[in-house]
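Hey, resending since the last one bounced:
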Amino acid sequence: MTESERISYYEGIYQLALLRIAELEHAMAKYEAIQPEIAKLEAYYGSDEWKKDFKMDEEGKLPKDLKRGVLSEDGIYDLLEKNADLMEIFLTTE
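The structure tokens again:
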């Protein structure tokens, strides 16, 4: 490999790393910004309101075309657990 080829090779890695780091920083900022909304979701999940909504869904009283992933016990639990795991990683890297 010539000096020019070597420098070009490592320049490519450098440029790609710069791009990926910028993308990650942007994604992390967006992730951090959604945390207040996730806190609201977590509060809803443990509330009487959620239990009422869940019961209505179980009884078939909600519109059939209504998206209701938030009423999936496993789905919302898994999302909140994954968020907690990611926040732990996020906070240890700051």
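The mean pLDDT is 94.

Sorry for the duplicate.
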